[in-house]
Give the backbone structure.
Amino acid sequence: MAGHSKWANIQHRKGVQDAKRGKIFTRCIREITTAARNGDPDPANNPRLRLAIDKALTANMTRDTIERAVKRGAGGDDSAAIEEIRYEGYGPGGVAILVDVMTDNRNRTGDEILLIFSKNGGNRGAAGCVSYMFKSKALVRVKREGVDEDALIGDALDAGAEDVVTDDSDVFEIYGAVADLDKIKDALVSKKYPIESAEPTKKPDVLVALDENNAGKVLKMIEQFEDHDDVQKVWANFDIPDQVLAKLG
């Protein structure tokens, strides 16, 4: 799954850029508020809220800001109601794309997502049109530097992981069942592995290899999705061969 790893690294670099622009704070606050509203406001009893808080702390959000977001969600403030929606469709080259949003205006956001699909040579489809091509998985990323690959693989599998991706990127990608996310992460943390991130993801069953023309178009489309204020996550099932990736810079 080297191609998927490259895509994950592209996502990570984009995530760093988003953090610099402050977008990640907005996304974290929405996720915390929604998780607290839809579940127990105590993160010890709410895995989704616990994960959202961990991401916010990793992004250097203050605990005061996090606590205010939790209280806002737990208070059930109707003016803060946010709807979660998943849009599905195809991009250039037949790439399957999932776009998860949180919005207080379904019609506005739906129209804007549709526009991004259409103006970039894609098509938004009905619910379920591409989601069957992805599997829900836990994903723990461990920084490669200073880590013994064989030891990590053994420890990850012992913790319940299903697969460890070890290509030439700067992180190891460890996949498992979503229900095992905390177990895998906690086991690796206890062994002092440098965890970069831990979250649920959508792992594609099959990757679509892109040529230089379509690769550029798909990356442009996804960048526009990720720049949208209501978009939380974007997943796609493409692979960019090394020689094409080199040309794209």
User: Anything to note?
Assistant: The beta strands are 83-90, 96-103, 123-125, 134-143, 163-165, 171-176, 195-204, 208-209, 231-236, 238-239. The radius of gyration is 18 Å. Confidence is low (pLDDT under 50) at residues 1-5. The domain at 2-80 is CATH 1.10.10.200 (Arc Repressor Mutant, subunit A).
